[in-house]
């Protein structure tokens, strides 16, 4: 808005106000007196431009975005801790109970037992908030001595840990709040309630799915993957505290639609097939995440575009998605989950 308010433009206007019979050439007393003021005014206009951008939710970021969204009751979600399944064994691989609060480590990430599921099976919570708690699996090492413990394993993710909400996600929730007002238990409000639960990445609402007063809520986790039973229960419990009287709400996880992609690629010099496959898999996974609840199909053409834009890929042939060369349809409660990627040369 103030791009034209440059130092040169401001100084020129100031000099134009000085009578022509006075010396206002560069190096004159008048020029040297006005030049610092013009520089300060140009900086003030630049700061004003920045402030205008920070004021708008569309262009704001960081703490300024939080100030904007807080006016509508939308606050940034903090990082949450992952909860994992742990198994503990004694002699002869017999299940072994351990004390709640026992601490274990795997590759410098620590967990502690917070709930007993059954003999030898516990819920472990990562001591560090964020997605780092989702990444490791395998043998756990006890931080303190545990009598009788022979082997400990970290296995399934029960509730995925989530990093601090990004600006883009916070902005998206804010825009949804102001553009789709949530009132009186409408569909927008049920989605809003679901997104308020830590660990929920998105939700889809089906009003009147089983008759009058019924609502079905389909959710995914923060990684846009099918939700665990624990996360489903958390959302269900929270909805029960805020739903309108008389509403019968059913919360379920989205169903996974496995996606497999294969192709023959022509590689650029200096690239290896494994590195190209890894890069393509990451880009394709990001596309599938963006598609969850946002599209009714996986675009065959889009997959081809992603493959062709992968560094190291010059061309491809025989591209198939789930064994075919057409779009892959998604049912109402399905989300795409990347299963296999097979690239050959």
TrEMBL record:
Residues 261-343 form the Baseplate J-like C-terminal domain. Pfam families: Baseplate_J_C, Baseplate_J_M. Signal peptide: none annotated. Residues 182-253 form the Baseplate J-like central domain. PANTHER family: PHAGE-LIKE ELEMENT PBSX PROTEIN XKDT (PTHR37829), PROTEIN JAYE-RELATED (PTHR37829:SF3). Belongs to the Mu gp47/PBSX XkdT family. This is Putative phage Mu protein gp47-like protein. It comes from Desulfosporosinus youngiae DSM 17734. The lineage of its organism: Bacteria, Bacillati, Bacillota, Clostridia, Eubacteriales.
């Amino acid at each position: 808005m103030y791009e034209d308010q440059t130092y040169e433009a401001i100084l020129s206007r100031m000099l134009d106000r000085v009578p022509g019979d006075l010396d206002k050439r560069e190096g004159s007393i008048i020029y040297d007196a006005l030049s610092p003021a013009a520089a300060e005014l140009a900086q003030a206009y630049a700061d004003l431009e920045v402030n205008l951008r920070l004021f708008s939710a569309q262009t704001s970021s960081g703490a300024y975005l939080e100030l904007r969204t807080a006016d509508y009751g939308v606050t940034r979600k903090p990082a949450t801790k992952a909860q994992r399944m742990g198994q503990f064994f004694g002699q002869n691989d017999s299940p072994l109970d351990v004390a709640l609060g026992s601490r274990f480590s795997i590759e410098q990430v620590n967990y502690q037992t917070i709930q007993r599921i059954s003999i030898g099976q516990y819920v472990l919570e990562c001591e560090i908030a964020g997605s780092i708690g989702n990444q490791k699996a395998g043998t756990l090492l006890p931080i303190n001595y545990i009598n009788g413990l022979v082997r400990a394993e970290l296995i399934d993710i029960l509730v995925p840990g989530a990093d601090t909400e990004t600006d883009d996600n916070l902005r998206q929730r804010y825009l949804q709040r102001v553009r789709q007002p949530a009132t009186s238990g409408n569909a927008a409000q049920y989605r809003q309630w679901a997104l308020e639960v830590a660990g929920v990445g998105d939700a889809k609402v089906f009003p009147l799915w089983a008759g009058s007063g019924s609502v079905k809520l389909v959710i995914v986790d923060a990684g846009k993957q099918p939700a665990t039973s624990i996360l489903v229960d958390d959302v269900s419990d929270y909805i029960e505290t805020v739903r309108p009287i008389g509403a019968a709400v059913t919360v379920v996880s989205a169903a996974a639609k496995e996606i497999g992609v294969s192709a023959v690629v022509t590689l650029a010099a200096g690239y290896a097939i494994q590195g190209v496959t890894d890069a393509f898999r990451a880009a394709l996974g990001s596309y599938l995440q963006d598609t969850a609840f946002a599209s009714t199909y996986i675009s065959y053409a889009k997959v081809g575009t992603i493959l062709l834009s992968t560094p190291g890929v010059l061309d491809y042939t025989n591209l198939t998605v789930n064994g075919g060369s057409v779009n892959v349809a998604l049912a109402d409660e399905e989300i795409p989950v990347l299963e296999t990627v097979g690239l050959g040369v």
